[in-house]
Design a protein that fits this description.
The protein is of the alpha/beta class and about 230 residues long. It has a 6-stranded antiparallel β-sheet with strand order 4-3-6-1-2-5, covered by helices on one side. A hairpin with a 2-residue loop joins strand 1 and strand 2.
Length: about 230
């Protein structure tokens, strides 16, 4: 268990806040794609919530998390309603759906808030390897494309290795040059899917199961498709 201080709380999208956790002593060791269980004392009770790490492991001294306001559990309400810089929490690192350099080039497919662990992988590939990554994010509306500007900046810094695509799953906005609809087999077939060595999926259960089947139908090796279900 690691004790840490909350800092740098930011409203990233209308529904999602991000923040950093800085350990009081020692360093945090984790792999791209891992998550943490965060524990906090609320009204004399220990509450717990699990959240994916969005930062690159080479980011020394702290980890970054992003939490969507999805429901009324104690941890979500604490994070969105009352958490402030300087608060004390504890956390443990977990998760086995991780990227390592021997997985080479990676296609990252995200549904909604499922972009969080893939952001860690995307940063790691861009900043610490010579491999390529394409991040394809499906969101319900345009203002929910989490980390959009940061991703675009990374792509500009590594134009031959990092690539970014978006699609709006609900066709409720008429935006120029925007792709609409969920990530489907036809959309995947327009990408160089078979040129990638690994595919990482993160999103709701149905998103993962549907995309998994699409990848198999396209001919991608199921042994190189990685995911971890949360919902």
């Amino acid at each position: 268990m690691v004790s840490a201080i909350v800092s740098n709380i930011r409203q990233e999208t209308p529904s999602t806040k991000s923040f950093d956790l800085t350990p009081i002593t020692g360093k945090v060791h984790f792999l791209p794609g891992q998550w943490v269980d965060v524990l906090v004392q609320i009204n004399g009770r220990t509450e717990i919530g699990g959240y994916s790490i969005t930062s690159n492991p080479s980011q020394k001294g702290s980890i970054s998390l992003a939490v969507k306001d999805l429901n009324n559990d104690f941890m979500t309400r604490y994070i969105h309603d009352s958490m402030v810089d300087g608060d004390m929490v504890s956390f443990n690192v977990g998760g086995t759906c991780t990227y390592s350099e021997e997985k080479n080039d990676a296609l990252l497919l995200a549904g909604g808030i499922g972009i969080t662990p893939l952001m860690s992988i995307f940063k790691n590939i861009g900043e610490d390897t010579d491999h390529k990554a394409l991040l394809f994010h499906s969101a319900s509306c345009s203002n929910e494309f989490l980390f959009e500007e940061e991703i675009k900046t990374l792509c500009l810094q590594h134009p031959n290795r990092l690539f970014y695509r978006q699609t709006l799953s609900r066709n409720s906005e008429q935006l120029r040059n925007q792709t609409f609809g969920r990530i489907t087999k036809s959309k995947l077939q327009k990408l160089p899917v078979l040129c990638f060595d690994a595919v990482f999926l993160c999103g709701p259960d149905k998103f993962i199961s549907d995309i998994y089947e699409c990848l198999i139908e396209i001919g991608f090796d199921k042994n190189h498709i990685y995911y971890e279900k949360w919902w």
